[in-house]
Amino acid sequence: MAVSKVLVVGGGITGSVLALALARRGVDVELAEISPRWFGVGHGITLQGNALKALRAVGVLDRVLAHAVPFDLLRLRDADGSLIVELPTPRTGGDDLPATAGALRSDLQDTLCEAVRAAGVRVRLGLSVSALDQSADQVTVAFTDGTTGRYDLVAGADGLRSHVRGLIGITAEPRPVGMSIFRVVADRPAEMDCAEVYYGGPRYKAGYSPISTGQCYAYLLDENLDASLVGPRAPLPLLRERGAGYGGTWGRILASLPDDTAVDYRWIEAVLLESPWYRGRVIVIGDAAHACPPLIAQGAAMCAEDAVVLAEHVTAEVPVETALKDFMARRMPRVRTVLENSLRLAEWEIRPETPGADPAGIMSETLAFLQAAA
Question: Which of these three, 226, 246, 269, is where a domain ends?
Answer without folding.
Answer: 269
